[in-house]
Every structure is written in C-alpha cells, then in structure tokens.
Amino acid sequence: MTTERYYYDFFGAKSESRWNVEKDIPWGEIDREAALSQPDILDKVRRTALIESYHALGTVSLIKLLHEDVDATSVFQVECFEGFRHFWSLRRYLDLVGFEPRITDEELVEIRRRNIEHVNYKPEDTVQELVNFIWSEHAAGYFARQLGAQCKDKVLAKLLGFISVDEFRHAEGGYQILTKLLERQPELKPEVLRAASNFKHYGWHVCELPVAVENDFTTVLQMKRKFEKVCGARIVSWREGWANG
Question: Which of 24-38, 118-132, 213-227 is the least confident region?
C-alpha cells in the first residue's frame, strides 16, 4: 500500500471507529464503589488524563514542525482532537466517582507553563520528536488495554477500550508519516535508528508515567521491529556503528 493510499484509509478508519462520549459511554451505570476500591488504578487514570492534556503543547508543536506535509498535519489534527476527547472523558469519569485530588484548570495551566520551553522544537528535532510521538502513542494503546482489563468497573473498562483503539491508530498514523518521510529522504534512516534508541515518552514532561503491567516489553519489541523494518537495519547495529565510528 502506498503512503498516499494509506491516508485515505486512515480517515476512513477514523470515521468507522469513532465513538460518542455521550452515547457510547454509559455514565449512569458507573459502579462508584467498585471504582473507588481500586485507588491505584484511578491514580493511573488521573495521570493519563494529565498526559492527554499535554497535546495542546506537544502535538501542536509537531504540526508546526511538519507544516509542509499536508497528510501529516491532517493526522496530527485528528490525534489532537481525540487526545482531548480522552482527557475530558477521563476527567469526567474521575469527577463522577469523586476521586481526589481532582484535576483543576490551575494544575493544567501549571503543567503547560513549566513545559513551554520543552516544546520549542527546531527542524533538527523533527525525526526524534516524530519517533517519540509514534512510540508514546503505541505504548498508550497497550497501557489502556492492559489497565482496562484490570478494572472492576465495567464503564471505565469500556472507556479505556475505546481509548486503546484510538491510540494504536494514532501510532500507525505517525508510522506512516515516518515511512513517507523516509521515502523522500532515505538518508535519514540512521537518524531514525538513533532516535529510536533514544526514545523518550512525551508524558515524562507531565508526571511520573503510569504503568499497567510491570516489566512488560511487548510494546518495546513491537515498535523496535517496526522501526528496524522501515529502516532496513537493526537498532543495535546503529549503536555499534556509532561506537566504531
């Protein structure tokens, strides 16, 4: 499949997989007692909501970096909207069950204020930040799926299931943007391998990253293979070449 064809399919899939916050989430069926019996999970949900709120900085900065790629900016615009849908849905859930501390606008503004310099991306940051985006979204998909499987409250499990599907689609969209970039500039492949070996989840700017399953390397291995496939080389080979060079 060409990357051009991919973007038509991407937006087609987006239309088919969309979910409605009011119609598809049975807010009135929340089992508050079951939810509050798992404060560790609710704390992870809270941190996830804070990270989703960060798209106002991180994703918008990526759009600026790739403003000449119409397909890329389209994908990121969708991701930004859906990321905020995740944020508002998770925040609403936490408010309805009465989990403390509540997320306040003041807290969100403070997160943005202290991170505004981190997203002052330069053109030379493009590959690293794109790789960070892809890997972060892929990891978020696994996290939401795994956390949902642990929830006693079925409403939260359903919400996290919708979010998981979105996150995996965002990661694939980013991966196709990267594939298209390498079709135009194959000389960037070593930089992609370097960026993958230096990956940082964008959520680390916001808070301590929530983990659903300790020592689960599934997402790492999957993304490692995808980057190696598009570059035609192993990530470890880049490290060896760097050391020998």
Answer: 213-227
Q: What share of the chain is helix, strand, coil (3-state, %, to 5)?
A: 75, 0, 25
Contact between residue 52 and residue 83 where contact means Cβ atoms under 8 Å apart: yes
Report the candidate in 49, 47, 30 with the shortest Cα–Cα distance to residue 163.
49
Reported as a single tens digit per residue, the pLDDT across 155-174 is 999 999 999 999 999 999 99
Distance CA(93)–CA(171), nearest Å, equals 25
pLDDT exceeds 80 at position 202 = yes
Q: What is the DSSP string of 25-45?
A: S-GGG--HHHHHT-HHHHHHH
How many CA atoms are closer than 13 Å to the CA of 88, on its beta-carbon side?
10
Q: How far apart are CA 198 and CA 200, in angstroms?
A: 7
pTM for this prediction:
0.88
Handedness of CA 109, 114, 116, 118 (dihedral sign): negative
